[in-house]
Amino acid sequence: METKHTPGPWKIVRDASDFIQGVEVDSGWICDTQFNSIPSCEANAKLIAAAPDLLEALQEVIKISDRNHIAWDKAKAAIQKATT
Predict the structure, then answer these.
(1) What letter would DSSP give residue 30?
(2) Structural domain of 78
(3) Phi, psi dihedrals of residue 2, rounded to the nearest 5°
(4) Is 1 contained in some domain?
């Protein structure tokens, strides 16, 4: 069953101490978490926030790229992973 993700843009929310609290969209929270100051968690939050943009970019690349290129296969696999 295919599900639909919450449309972007998604953005990182920080508290008064600049710790990451989660990721949100205008209509509400996408990911409510306490990332605090752990560097890898901040990187993960940035990746989560970029997810809708990354998916859209890959879908556009698939439309214009050469099907015989290894990047096409990787893009298709990533899109399928994100949408199914």
Answers:
(1) E
(2) 11-83
(3) -85, 135
(4) no
pLDDT of residue 1: 47
Per the structure, how many domains does the chain have?
1
59: left (phi over 0), alpha (psi -120 to 50) or beta: alpha
CA–CA distances in Å: residue 61 to residues 7, 37, 64, 70, 79: 19, 35, 5, 13, 11
pTM of the entire predicted model: 0.67
28 found inside a domain: yes
Read off the tokens for 46.
Answer: 């940035």
Residue 5 pLDDT > 70, yes or no? yes
Question: Helix or strand or coil: residue 18?
Answer: coil
Cα distances (angstroms) measured from residue 79 to each of 2, 39, 51, 55, 58:
12, 27, 11, 6, 7
- Cis peptide bond N-terminal to 52, omega within 30: no
